[in-house]
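Running log. JK asked me to keep both predictions on one page so they can be read side by side. First protein, sequence followed by its tokens:
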Amino acid sequence: MAPNAESARPAAGVERLTATVLPTVHGVFDMIGYRCGEGAEHIALVYGDPAAVGGRGPLVRIHSECLTGDAFGSLRCDCGEQLAAALSVISAEGAGVVIYARGHEGRGIGLLNKLRAYALQDGGLDTVDANSHLGLPVEARDYSQSAEILRDLGIRRLRLLSSNPAKQEELTRLGIEVTERVRLPVADRAENSRYLDAKRTRMGHDHLPAGDAWAELTAGRVPEAPLTASDRELVERYGPLVARGERAAVAQLGQSLDGFIASRTGDAEFVTGEEDRTHLHRLRALVDAVLLGWRTVASDDPRLTVRAVEGENPVRVILDPGARSPRASAVLSDGSSPTLWLVDAATPTPQAPSPHVTVLPVTGLRELEPAALLELLAGRGLGRVLVEGGGRTVSRFVRAGAVDRLYLTTASLLIGDGVPGLRFAGSDALADALRVPARKFMLGEDVCTVLDFSGE
């Protein structure tokens, strides 16, 4: 526990006034109140016995007061999230300190001046130029009181929870040994990314590591924060699919605003844009098998490989009860990926046109329910399946409730008449319509809606 408030000798320049216990959602902390010579009041939140931590020292965060972030939950900065993360990390570590430094509002310029700077940022200035435009310093914080509080707590060596090298340099100048700076697991947000980028590029704060979230996702792992903005976007889109583990069924379809995937002549090149095609390749890279019907093979001649992103090609599964797929089609002639050619057992078994093709006769394939088909593939080690097309096949799986997630991309295009996309028997009343949780994201000029049918 922290030293007793009455018995401990105050450090020079600060006066320890009181101590109490503060139960929080992160654990029970000792809260010690200090008053400095100029009248400023500061708080030390102490967990365990940080002075007894050997080696590189305890975890310590010197947290600058931020009313908007800490109390109001502002997303213009990451202060509130940093504070919560620091308390959580220190609690998990078993010992550490958070010094809540009053008078540090707006990096020392005060609350109202911070709001004036915010108003200038609304007009396009970054955080550095906004302060300068007001004739205020970019950095006006004083860490001498924090250093004295640390010495009062018996801490002269520590691991600093901060991405600000200048804070480490200032503590070192004040006689506190910083053995390491530790990044807190707080990701950028859309609302604060410009602000944080300015601090990194103009004030020397640590840049986020150039993570490789895509490599983690294709390895079957969901990366944790902190993440770059682009990595966070990948995790938000594809993390739920990866998190489902070895069994997952997802479907993808790109269609026009009026619900067609091709013109009346069958021309489908291209309904959606390049970003959606990259998105489709990402989905392929995250599954064991990609499944489609023979009509799509005949009309589009897709290769069903991963070309736009890093990853392994999935096994190609062709639903073709009557063995009608053209023998010269890419899936039957291109050996870049194994192909499973499912034909009805009542149809004369065709000869495999290439060594990469396995012909699999299936009894009653025409009537086989999607759930039973997925079980069939899982029995062959293909538990993660992407139902890619066409509209008939995707609609059949959605209608049967066999899809966990549907990625439905809509292009700003009106075809008027053509090959229909998602279609299934509806209900007479809108109250009975299919409603599931959904999220949307932009793919260039296209909009992808992710529908979660899993019920999770």
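And the second, directly underneath as requested:
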Amino acid sequence: MTLTLHSKMKLRDGKEIPIMGFGTYEMDGREAYTAVKHALEAGYRHIDSAEWYYNEAECGRAIRDFCAASGVPRSEVFFTTKLQNNSGYTTSKRTISRSLQESGLGYIDLYLMHSAIGGPKKRAESWRAILEAKKDGFVRSVGVSNFGVRHLQEMVDATVELPVINQVDLHPFMTRTDIVAMCRKHDIALEVSWAPLVRGYRFKHPSIVRLAQKYEKEPAQYSCVTLCRRHAFEGYIPLPKSSSAHRIKSNLNVYDFELTSEEVAHLDSLDERLVTDWDPTDTP
């Protein structure tokens, strides 16, 4: 699959999402604002935030300031945020309104449930609130994050509108074949969440080093390159993050080669169920 910085994926609701996104997990205040500005100036048009990241206001302000300075319309920047707690219908409605106000962007391109924690009843109530926000035009597309097979099956069985995306910890060292199969069966796109670079845990892995040398990339950058090319092959959406202006730019240097099918298969064979942060996909 030939990719460029401007490549997009069509979601199951007909909307399009830029395939390369910029993550803001563990960034707050000035750091989040500055990093998002650098990312937008470098060419990213997909910014991923969350209520739980406590940076919706900074991300939104960076997007607004960039658009005002550059002339790029708001509609060209895809903004995602997430519901921190599945606390039921009424609380979720209030939370969505607060996120909309915090970002100051007029609407949210993609709104996710951040996890399945809370139990079936609270999940169902929160999802109903999210779907209503979509109907009312406050959010354009709706999805989930960190959902396991049982949680997705619960939605299928309830015959509700299904999420367009499941954002989950997914990389060559955590392939999650069961979740991938479930999402593909129901046309739910897969987005690589907070650790597309595996949080640096496998930069010195022999396979990473060998491929980095072959394609003349730094191992740190190659992790991003590997994921982008592997995700292109698999149909995933990566969300690399960095607060360094240099690294933000270098993470986009991924379009000058393509992995072979054999290399992708080898990367997929490295699975060791490496959890890089938290893993609520098995929550009841």
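Observation for JK regarding the second prediction: The mean pLDDT is 89.
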